[in-house]
Inverse folding.
């Protein structure tokens, strides 16, 4: 279970929900963890503490992933603190839902900036130390919405579909340096983001899931950890759906 011992992982949006579950799963497998957060300093500190309880080192870094200078500084700080950067998980994401005809340009741009531009900037910055070491794992969080679209989420769907395109392109660019790049597309996961949905909407979504239940953050975390492991060394440019059969 300690197949990631000696590795360093950077997880964006790691303070809560799916991001926290990913941090804890990677820590349980032996990886030191740097986690990025935009707000919620207390929650980020708690995630770091929980990682350290699993016997690894952890560091919480405040960063706006849509800002290239901040992203570079975050990667540099991670390498200074742990000596390397082996794993990048792009989990940071926001929603600004609304029907397209009513959606403001600001809400469209904000989602693209964090979800798509942020993932690009993090991959760009993390690629250098990984290429130098000739080993790396990048896992990008897409969504079932990026595969099928969803009414009221044209901005979110565009960002998550874009993440898939970037994943496949980066996989081809980095393969020669033994760096794999994959995506995980979660479905309906029980998080703070889904907890605010009306009960009628939840019931409708549950009806579309063949397994008949919402996923847990840990379901996604285990898929991410697999793609970070040596067991997935010959897998790159792929999208793994974790959705109970929705896809």
């Amino acid at each position: 279970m300690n197949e990631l011992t000696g590795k360093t992982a950077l997880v964006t949006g790691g303070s809560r929900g799916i991001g926290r579950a990913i941090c804890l799963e990677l820590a349980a497998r032996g990886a030191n963890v740097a986690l990025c957060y935009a707000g919620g300093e207390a929650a980020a500190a708690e995630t770091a503490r929980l990682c350290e309880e699993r016997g690894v080192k952890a560091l919480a870094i405040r960063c706006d992933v849509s800002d290239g200078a901040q992203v570079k500084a975050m990667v540099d700080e991670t390498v200074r603190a742990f000596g390397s950067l082996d794993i990048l998980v792009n989990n940071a994401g926001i929603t600004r839902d609304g029907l397209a005809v009513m959606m403001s340009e600001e809400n469209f741009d904000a989602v693209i900036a964090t979800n798509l531009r942020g993932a690009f900037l993090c991959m760009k910055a993390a690629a250098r130390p990984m290429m130098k070491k000739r080993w790396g794992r990048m896992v990008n969080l897409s969504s079932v919405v990026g595969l099928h679209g969803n009414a009221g989420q044209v901005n979110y769907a565009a960002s998550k579909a874009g993440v898939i395109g970037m994943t496949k392109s980066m996989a081809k660019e980095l393969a020669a340096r033994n760096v794999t790049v994959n995506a995980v597309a979660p479905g309906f996961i029980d998080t703070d983001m889904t907890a605010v949905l009306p009960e009628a909407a939840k019931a409708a979504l549950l009806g579309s899931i063949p397994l008949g239940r919402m996923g847990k953050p840990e379901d996604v975390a285990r898929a991410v950890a697999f793609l970070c492991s040596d067991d997935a060394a010959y897998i790159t440019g792929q999208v793994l759906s974790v959705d109970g059969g929705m896809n």
Notes: The mean pLDDT is 96.
